[in-house]
Specification:
seven-stranded antiparallel beta sheet; Immunoglobulin-like; nine-stranded mixed beta sheet; about 230 residues; 16 strands; mainly beta; about 60% strand
Length: about 230
Amino acid sequence: MHGFFKLILFLVFFAAAAVRAAPSAQELDWFDRDDDQIFKSINEGKLVFLTKPPKEIVHHHHNTLIILPETLQTGWGKLAQCHEHLDTFPSAQIVYNADRVRNIEITVKKNIELAWVQGSTIQLKNVGKNARLCMTAESHVLTRLDDGTYLIRSGPFMRKFLDGYFPMRVSMVIKLPPGLEFVSISPPEQPGFHVMRRPNGIDFDTWFEGRLRTEIRLQSKPVHSP
């Protein structure tokens, strides 16, 4: 029965408009857990922020996004991304939106036999315990709205098993150029969804189950007359 278990990890990265999630099927080694333990941990899809980390170490998806001055005109910024504590599986792929992510490069590979870029995907083979994968890319992250503000959309982030969802952690660091400032974030800050505002950016860090989408609104800083 264990051979039929599959985990699907959905990651849509920094879409400037709604895009389809492109999943990767990851065959997990469940032999160290019994079926009752698996099904007790499944969330059925509702977004739930966790005020305490799960007892088990789970997938951590960390992003650093750099908004450059030219990003305000082009929409393209720099992305550095790491996946920590990937689940063990013989083969998988991380799929990016080909219209929104380009120039993908793998920078770190740990406890993964093979990892390579193929088109708009990163292909993985024989992922072991405590695996880590990092990459850099250019990402079309910024959309200018009619009112002159800017929007960064990301997600949905989810770690899906059959019709349920497992816990995961997502961290985001966004670095802004001098002429841009933070306005708001959705979902709003709340227990389990921590938002840190800085003079030159905004960060968030969250543990959750279900499907997470975020929207961060930015605006140009007012110009003060001398």
